[in-house]
Design brief:
- The chain has helices at 16-19, 32-39, 49-53, 60-68, 72-80, 86-92, 114-127, 150-161, 178-181, 190-202, 219-224, 256-265, 290-301, 322-330, 399-403, 433-436, 441-460, and strands spanning 142-146, 165-169, 206-208, 230-233, 239-240, 253-255, 282-286, 306-310, 334-336, 339-346, 352-365, 371-383, 387-390, 394-395, 428-430.
- It is an alpha/beta fold.
- The protein folds into 3 domains: 25-127, Fumarate Reductase Iron-sulfur Protein, Chain B, domain 2 (Orthogonal Bundle); 142-238 and 395-460, 3-Layer(bba) Sandwich (FAD/NAD(P)-binding domain); 242-390, FAD/NAD(P)-binding domain (3-Layer(bba) Sandwich).
- The protein has a 5-stranded parallel beta sheet. The protein has a 5-stranded parallel beta sheet with strand order 6-13-7-8-9. A 3-stranded antiparallel beta sheet has the order 10-11-12, with no helix packed on it.
- The longest helix is centred in the last third of the chain and has 20 residues, at 441-460.
- The mean pLDDT is 95.
- The protein binds flavin-adenine dinucleotide and iron/sulfur cluster (SF4) (2 copies).
- One iron/sulfur cluster is lined by residues 42-45, 48-50, 60-61, 103-105, 112, 114.
- One iron/sulfur cluster binds at residues 54, 56, 58, 60, 83, 89-90, 93, 95, 98-99, 114-115, 118, 442.
Length: 462
Amino acid sequence: MPNMSPKKAEMPKQPAEIRKRNFLEVATGYTKEVAMEEATRCLNCKHRPCVSGCPVHIRIPDFIKEVAAGNFEQAYDVIHQSSSLPAVCGRVCPQESQCEARCVRGIKDEPVGIGRLERFVADWHNAQEESAVSKPVSNGRKVAVIGSGPSGLTCAGDLAKKGYDVTVFEALHLAGGVLVYGIPEFRLPKSIVQQEVDTLRKLGVKIETNMVIGRVLSIDELMDEQGFEAVFIGTGAGLPRFMNIPGENFCGVYSANEFLTRTNLMKAYKEDAATPIMHAKRVAVVGGGNVAMDAARSAMRLGADTVYIVYRRSEEELPARAEEIEHAKEEGVVFHMLSNPLEILGDENEFVTGMRIQKMALGEPDASGRRRPVPVEGSEELLDVDAVIMAIGTSPNPLIKSTTKGLETQRWGGIVADEHGATTREGVFAGGDAVSGAATVILAMGAGKTAAAAIDEYLSKK
Ligand code: FAD
Ligand code: SF4
Ligand code: SF4
């Protein structure tokens, strides 16, 4: 008999009052007993709707069945056939709009905690004695991967397993992309990403950090002079957008990318860190996605008394993961919905002293299908803040395009690539946010996998 409990087994987490002042992981994970109990809520449905909700089609009922039977390593094997980053995706996937959105149990009650179970299985596997990773026999053919985010890491891993001589070129001093510089430690411990990077090294992948392709070396040089027969571009979309309102150049205005990079990658929150960051007391974060929630919750952990989320649509349209919104609220972040910044105010030394905002109402749906926010006349308000963080989106950096012959991009900067990741330049493939614009970890990982298969096919015919 399946367990008909209407609710998912509770995820243990640090109390809000304590966690809002530390960078330790918020949710501490299921025990094996709780995981087995939650797994018995799955009905093992014949038509498997949950599988079609997962962008990489993990055989969800099969892995959950193994969890219910206590066969955790077998459960891991099932997941690993489709996903190379389960400990990451179990934590950060927007399950409520993917796998769990299609779960039959979710029609009447809460869906099965698929993400929580995936996280449990991956953590259980990672905690076991390390199994030796055998280095595949080399086929001697060189492939370059540019960028070490989820798309690049996945592409590199899949190609290395097939015997390619893979070098990853990463602009920053640490590999992992957004997983290390963007998503904070309290949501995704960096040791998990490090473990993935270490596994790649054991497979023989070379990782060269501090290598900005397009500056230090170009793709043309890699292919024409250094013997790389194919290239994968997984450079993400890290170029922040701003609103172009007065005062955006004042001291105390950050892009979310800069703020989170200083906090996460450069550990600015540690007392002995050399990286400067403003420990503001009253912070406004503009935006409503995961990036905005991460920035707001990080500002709180850096010592802010008041943190506002300023978002121009209503709560219903907030694009962040439901869990992050819930956690941010529990930690005391104040949500200013239907509000649009007009101007950032500063003192005579150009330090932020406040932000003028205008109330919005929702009008007719726009091209995205969401109702367009329209200003409400005479509804201006003043927010008393000493720092503003802009989290209103990012675009791909134009550096690669401007230094690579024959590489076409869209008007907004995304690299043009077909469904296999092939770009307009022969031998050059691309995937992840660099192609799609800012999206999700699982989609970037899937694109890296698809491109690795296409690169293998391309080189096998060459
Ligand atoms: P990235 O992860 O951006 O990696 C690109 C890498 O390329 C970077 O390391 C960069 O330094 C490097 N690079 C760039 N240019 C060059 C160059 N010229 N030479 C060499 N290297 C270069 N997604 C979710 O699914 N769930 C979440 O909860 C979530 N939260 C997020 C929170 C934040 C703060 C951010 C910023 C994003 C979040 N995302 C989330 C989105 C997700 O992280 C991205 O969609 C994903 O990381 C994209 O992967 P990628 O491999 O395309 O690129
Ligand atoms: Fe769900 Fe993401 Fe896991 Fe797929 S990878 S099953 S969408 S949590
Ligand atoms: Fe199990 Fe839900 Fe998938 Fe059905 S839809 S197999 S209940 S996870």
